Amino acid sequence: MYFIGKFKNIGENMTDYNKLAELLFPDIDKTPDYYEELYPQRNLKEGARVTRLAPSPTGFLHFGNLFTGTVAYKTAKATDGIFFVRVEDTDQKRKIDGAVEVMLQGLAAYDVTPDEGVMIDGTQKGEYGPYYQSQRKEIYQTYAKSLVEQGFAYPCFCSAEELENIRTQQENEDIKGYYGKYAKCRDLSFEEIKANIEKGKTWTLRLKSPGDINKKCYFDDMIRGKIEMPENVIDVVLLKTDGIPTYHFAHAIDDHLMRTTHVTRGDEWIASVPLHLQLFRVLGFKPVKYAHVAPIMKTEGEGKRKLSKRKDPEAAVTYYKQEGFPSSSVNEYMMTIMNSNFEDWRRVNKDADINAFPFNLKKMSVSGALFDMVKLTDVSKNVISVMTADEVFAQSYEWAKEFNTQLADLYEQDKTYATAVLNIDRGNKKPRKDIAKWSDIPDYISYMYDETFEENYELTGNATPELAVRILKLYKDIVDINDDKDTWFSKIKSICEPVGCTPNVKEFKQNPDAFKGHVGDVSTIIRVALTGRTNTPDLYAITALLGADRVQSRIEKAIKHYEEVK
Ligand code: GLU
């Protein structure tokens, strides 16, 4: 046990404390020593960190949960440590069946998988369990009993109404809560307590805070650096009337017994650190290290605000799956906003596995990482641009089966064809970046299927309907999908002169009045006829894949159209 001698309560009224502990917890027959032995120090290599994610099972996985979970996961992995999941399900009223699995599967899709604790199927693994707080009541009560024995906790019989009164009286005071003269039950005698209990009055268990209003508490947050705050003086509730612990109490016991070394959690808890450190002290625990993760922010107008479950669809992790952002893109993006040096590292380690990046808590933003959809889109385009066609096909097919059955049906007509379509321009030195998410694919490949091809004969540049008719008629007769690329292109060039264009763009620029257009206009006319677009990947590959029949029929249709409008 640590520091315990510092507190004056020890020895003050030992017999009464022991009697009180017995009165409050008659069924508890274990002592903290029992659990200390049951959950020994972990045998890990020097410097290995033990981290955890402690979700409350609401079923909704916020991007912030994934972010914080990733921070915990990376912290453990970067040190060959252990990452575990503990489910904070003490609030049975809010319990939703299957919520844990939903959340853990959501995390697992982004590689946040526990070594220990609650696994994605809801089962538990590891020597430090149970990992559901709802199954740890006896453990909490054992420590509660021990605090009562030492004079660090007492029962409080104040009603909701009485507590409300205190709040009203304190409206204009700096320190709010149950302390000092407001802590009416703090000094009840054993007899008074006994009488209350015999009357059947319900009670909560409160910390008898040893804090000093004039003293400061110091700690070193792994992300925010040195922090100084007033000591905690509030006699917070440790156990609610049903004997279930509050977050504060449960966190201290669980993280101690599960031998957590680094608590990474949302920075809404930072104000509670003085209390938590005090709890560690009275419980005789070595304090954990804290890393408080700032919430994900979003720009709004001139300012910034938190990414909001209510306002922002992208606050839900399911959003990325539905839209078809590959998890590798989301992970890559998350790392860019998680560690300020990640992008520099990526520039020199283009092909390296993301797990090779030396993640560092100290490189995290204190003010909150900024969520930026444009940046995510760019990152994702890069990630997808270097995937093989087989990967793109496999992942987008999985996505399509769930979210776009029309695309899945198209793929199923001919998977080799679909993969070849996705392979166009892939593997080039400078790969195209047309796809940011799988839901971009139906539009991207639409002209490669008759079912989804949309005719659109609008022309750009020097192309006119008259020119289009002449060019397409010539092209129709000479196009051969078995040609190699050079032959195909020389055929396109050969069409130029007969229709008054030049194969040489430079020549056209020098003397535009002498020509009707140049080879680029000729290609545009063919491209529009075949795809309905003026900008596509490699037209040669598209032509070859579309096949002779489709090429002929699309050209014929285009000729008909331009003949009608010219
Ligand atoms: N259940 C708490 C929450 O969801 C966990 C906080 C922590 O990580 O300690 O906010």
What does this 3D model show about the protein?
With 566 residues, the chain is an alpha/beta fold. Helix content is 43%, strand content 10%. It is built from 22 helices and 15 strands. Helix 3 (63-77) links the parallel strand 1 and strand 2 (82-85). It is elongated, with a radius of gyration of 34 Å. It starts with 13 loop residues before the first helix and ends with a helix. 37% of the residues are buried. It binds glutamic acid. Glutamic acid is lined by residues 54-56, 88, 251, 263, 265-266.
Listed once per kind, the bound small molecules are: glutamic acid
Categorize the overall geometry. elongated
Number of strands: 15
Q: Which regions are unreliable across 5 or more consecutive residues at pLDDT < 50?
A: 1-8
Average per-residue pLDDT, rounded, comes to 94
Largest sheet: spatial strand order: 1-2-3-4
Gap from first CA to last CA: 93 Å
Sheet with the most strands, sense and barrel status: 4 strands, mixed
The structural class is alpha/beta
Strand content: 5-15%
**Number of discrete helical segments:** 22
> How much helicity do the residues have?
40-55%
